[in-house]
Write a structure and sequence with these properties.
By secondary structure, this protein is α+β, with helices and mostly antiparallel strands. The chain has a single domain (16-198), classed as C8orf32 fold (Roll), CATH 3.10.620. Helix content is 36%, strand content 21%. The chain has 8 helices and 7 strands, in the order ααβααααββββαββα. It has a 7-stranded antiparallel beta sheet. Strand 4 and strand 5 form a beta hairpin. The longest helix has 17 residues, at 19-35.
C-alpha cells in the first residue's frame, strides 16, 4: 500500500472537497437552461438589464397599472389584436417606439409591436403578461421581442411580428422563443441561461 493512500485512509477527518457537488449542480443547471422554452424557463429577478437605457422611452408603458376589467381578456380578442399588429409593415429601428408610434401607420419592428400589444393587454385587464427579449430560434443571430402570457388555461407566446395568433408552449417547441430578459411592470428578470453563459 502506498504512503499517500495510507495517509488518506487513516485520516478520519478528511472531507471530500465540494467540487463534485458544484460541478454536478452547474451541469444540471446548464442542461436545464439549454433545454428550456419560455414556459419552463427559469427566471431570476434582477435590478437592471443591459436594455434599461434603451427602454427609457417605453418604461411608462411597462410600469402603468393594469386597468381592472369586468371581463377576462380572451385568447380570441388577443388573436385579433395580434392580427392587427401583424398587418403593420415591418421596419427596424434602433430605438423603442411607443405604442402610439407603432400603430401610426409607419413600419414597426418586433419591439414596437410587442410593446403595443403589452399596453393593449394591460389596458384591458390582462395580468401575468411579460415583455420578453430573447432568441426566436436557437440559431437566431439577433435578439427578438415578444410577450409571454400565463393564464389559467396555459402559457402562451404572443409574437405579433411573425404570428397572427397566440401559440402555446407546445406549439413553439423547446428550441424556439428562448428568453434572455423579461419585464413585467416594475419587475425585471434574467433567464438562467444568460447566467450560465456568462459564468
Amino acid at each position: 500500500m502506498g504512503v499517500a493512500y495510507r495517509n488518506y485512509s487513516q485520516n478520519k477527518n478528511y472531507k471530500e472537497p465540494p467540487m463534485k457537488k458544484t460541478l454536478l449542480l452547474s451541469g444540471l443547471l446548464l442542461a436545464f437552461a439549454a433545454s428550456s422554452s419560455f414556459a419552463d424557463a427559469l427566471l431570476f429577478s434582477v435590478n437592471s438589464t443591459p436594455y434599461d437605457h434603451q427602454m427609457a422611452r417605453i418604461r411608462p408603458v411597462l410600469t402603468a397599472t393594469t386597468h381592472s376589467s369586468s371581463s377576462q381578456v380572451s385568447v380570441a380578442i388577443v388573436n385579433q389584436w395580434m392580427a392587427d399588429l401583424r398587418s403593420i409593415p415591418y421596419g427596424f429601428t434602433t430605438f423603442w417606439k411607443t405604442p402610439a408610434e407603432a400603430v401610426s401607420g409607419e413600419p414597426a419592428d418586433c419591439k414596437a409591436k410587442a410593446v403595443a400589444l403589452y399596453e393593449k393587454m394591460r389596458e384591458n385587464g390582462a395580468t401575468n403578461v411579460r415583455l420578453v427579449i430573447g432568441k426566436r430560434t436557437s440559431t437566431s443571430r439577433m435578439t427578438h421581442a415578444w410577450l409571454a402570457w400565463d393564464t389559467e388555461s396555459g402559457s402562451y407566446v404572443l409574437d405579433p411580428t411573425f404570428n397572427y395568433a397566440a401559440c402555446t408552449s407546445a406549439q413553439v417547441g423547446k428550441r424556439n422563443y428562448q428568453p434572455l430578459y423579461a419585464y413585467a411592470g416594475n419587475k425585471k428578470f434574467r433567464a438562467a441561461s444568460t447566467l450560465v453563459a456568462q459564468n
